[in-house]
Amino acid sequence: MTGLERQLAIVVPVGPGDPAWRQLSRDLAACAAGIPVIAVACDDVDRAALSREWPACRVVMAGRGRARQLNAGARAADTEWLWFLHADSRIDPPAVAALAGAVSRGRDALHWFRLGFEADPAHPVRVNALGAWIRSRWLGLPFGDQGFLLRRRTFLRLGGFDERIDRGEDHAFVWRARRAGLPLVEVPARILTSARRYQERGWLRTTVGHLGLTAMQAFRFSRGER
């Protein structure tokens, strides 16, 4: 990881009442120590507690909404590269090694990781992981829980995440990147995300809901609508 800590900043939005960042902080301490982390809290988050329990991160404040938080983190960074992670992401050494490889190659692109879920191997979310790979690789639609990695200047040139969108700011950003001709590049490693919503709301109901929402957003965002 030599030099990566001088080139890259990790941006993590932290929402009110969400404890998932605690496990992510342990992951990053174990396999990405030294890389600066910017935790972006909204008004309802206890900034003092976040700083106390995650001393390795720099805490900045932003208005409520993931797009606002991610944009604030990007503005606070002073590195060439940005890695956007959701608070419920899980990271391991192979993911960080693949990340370092992507940075070292220096390609100006929107990089994304393969998606997995923290769940029992028999749980049907493994179908969702396959679907996420097909959506990303063959349809060119990776989502934010797949750990977007790109140059900071490219992110700013594209205008960042649209803060006027209540949901799907990551989806809209991908369409904007595509229209600008920015390549979408797979990083050959996996990051995990929580399967909590599938477990709480039911797999079928949640999956069908996501498919419908994705199709609706794709129709709007591909036309440049919000």
Write out the strand line-up for the largest beta sheet, numbering strands in chain order: 3-2-1-4-6
The largest pleated sheet is described as: 5 strands, mixed
- Total count of domains: 1
Order of helices and strands: HEHEHEHEHEHEHHEHH
CATH homologous superfamily label: Spore Coat Polysaccharide Biosynthesis Protein SpsA, Chain A
Structure overview:
The protein is of the alpha/beta class. The chain has a single domain (4-195), classed as Spore Coat Polysaccharide Biosynthesis Protein SpsA, Chain A (Alpha-Beta Complex). The protein is 45% helix and 19% strand. It contains ten helices and seven strands. It has helices at residues 4-7, 21-31, 47-53, 66-76, 93-105, 125-137, 152-157, 169-179, 196-201, 203-221; strands at 8-14, 37-41, 57-61, 81-84, 110-118, 149-151, 184-194. The strands form two sheets. Strands 3-2-1-4-6 form a five-stranded mixed beta sheet, with helices on both faces. A two-stranded parallel ribbon has the order 5-7. Strand 2 (37-41), helix 3 and strand 3 form a beta-alpha-beta unit. Helix 8 packs parallel to helix 10 (203-221). The longest helix has 19 residues, at 203-221. The radius of gyration is 17 Å and the shape is globular. The N and C termini lie far apart (39 Å). The relative contact order is 0.15.
Could you give the topology of this structure?
Elements: H1 4-7, E1 8-14, H2 21-31, E2 37-41, H3 47-53, E3 57-61, H4 66-76, E4 81-84, H5 93-105, E5 110-118, H6 125-137, E6 149-151, H7 152-157, H8 169-179, E7 184-194, H9 196-201, H10 203-221
Parallel strand pairs: 1-2, 1-4, 2-3, 5-7
Antiparallel strand pairs: 4-6
Helix pairs in contact: 8-10
